[in-house]
Amino acid sequence: MRNQDQAGRFDRRRLLAAAAAGTAALPQAAGLLAASATATQLLAATPSQAATQPQPAHPSKGHTATTITTRDGTQLYYKDWGKGQPIVFSHGWPLSSDAWEDQMFFLASQGFRCIAHDRRGHGRSQQTWHGNDLDTYADDLADLVQALDLRGAVHVGHSTGGGEVTRYIGRHGTSRVAKAVLVSAIPPFMLKTAGNPTGQPKEDFDKVRAAVLADRTQFWRDLSVPFFGYNRPGAKVSEGVREQFVFQCMMASFPASYLGIQAWSETDLTEDLKRINVPTLVIHGDDDQIVPIANSARRSATIIPKATLKVYEGGSHGIAATLKDRLNQDLLAFVRT
User: Fold this and answer.
1) 285: closest CA among 191, 189, 185?
2) How far apart are CA 333 and CA 322, in angstroms?
3) What's the rounded Cα separation, in Å, for the pair 227 and 215?
4) 99 close to 158: Cβ distance less than 8 angstroms
5) N or C end of the chain: which has fewer CB within 10 A?
6) Which residues participate in catalysis according to the annotation?
7) What does the pLDDT read at residue 53?
8) Which of 183, 176, 130 is nearest to 161 (CA)?
9) 255 in helix, strand or coil?
10) Are 108 and 141 in contact (CB under 8 A)?
């Protein structure tokens, strides 16, 4: 595992060195959602016939220190830092658990156990052809929770990860959940329909699909600008943050990058939100250009029974990086109450 990680880091460094050669101009991306991700090869995986249940939390029977096996035989990578009440992080599309490291390190240092997995097809997890949908993402999360026997957990999800947390609670309940946090999250429903007139037109998401197919590396580079609000006057641009974003996106498989678009754009999570019966903190930037706040957080906060909405004025979609100190403190205060 260690050798594989080292090899992966070397390949990613070479990728970033090549990608840093120029800076792309961003076309107008208003209305496009949190797009990003893709690996350089398609790896289709056939689920194990024997793996119908997640493996138990004993290294000799189901997982090493960094992987678990889901009910369909998919290998998921995870990181597990610190001791104390568990806080489980779900990342956005098409990033990886690395997107949460600022929050994980901070909260682990404050006496919490911080756990984050790479979603199937993303980061270091197995690249499957199947399962690029929120039902499977939610079941994978349930398998992680069961394998590690987590109880009284606080679940934190960003963007698509917020949809994953919402669908997880909708499908599996809150018997193991103490609280939830949705950060720049996609619920309740991104797509414009007759019943959801404030959503975004399907044509917007078709443009994301076309960009992924045409030149996904360039698309991730372009997307990093509005993702972090770097196209706003006076924005302090970090090329390091942009490179790390592309770095993570390029670790995702082609199937996860492309097929995942339908998952986050066309899944109605309204009924799942109604089932969240634990205290929930909804955090969103009011200048989020990827998941606009009016059709997401403001609506979710009115649907979730015990929700508290916290709006970051001028905040982008990538507040876990651009406003990390504020987010860290808000998370700490919420989990401690």
Assistant:
1) 185
2) 19
3) 18
4) yes
5) C
6) 159, 288, 317
7) 62
8) 183
9) helix
10) no
* DSSP annotation of 196: B
Kindly tell me the sign of the dihedral angle through the C-alpha atoms of 94, 92, 89, 136.
Answer: negative
Write the pLDDT tens digit of every residue in 5-57: 444 443 444 443 344 433 333 333 434 433 333 333 333 333 444 445 665 44
- Relative orientation angle of helices 134-147 and 160-172, to the nearest 10 degrees: 70
Cα distance between residue 190 and residue 159, in whole Å: 11
Is 0.85 surpassed by the pTM of this model?
A: no
Instruction: Pinpoint the alpha helices (H) of the chain.
Output: 2-19, 101-109, 134-147, 160-172, 202-227, 239-249, 254-265, 270-274, 297-303, 319-322, 324-336
322 phi and psi, to 5 degrees?
A: -75, -30
Which CATH superfamily includes the segment(s) 66-336?
Alpha/Beta hydrolase fold, catalytic domain (3.40.50.1820)
| Amino acid letter, residue 144 | L
Vertex 56, ends 50 and 59: CA angle to 5°?
105
Model pLDDT for residues 133-172, shown as the tens digit of each residue? 999 999 999 999 999 999 999 999 999 999 999 999 999 9
Query: Residues 144, 62: contact at Cβ < 8 Å?
Result: no
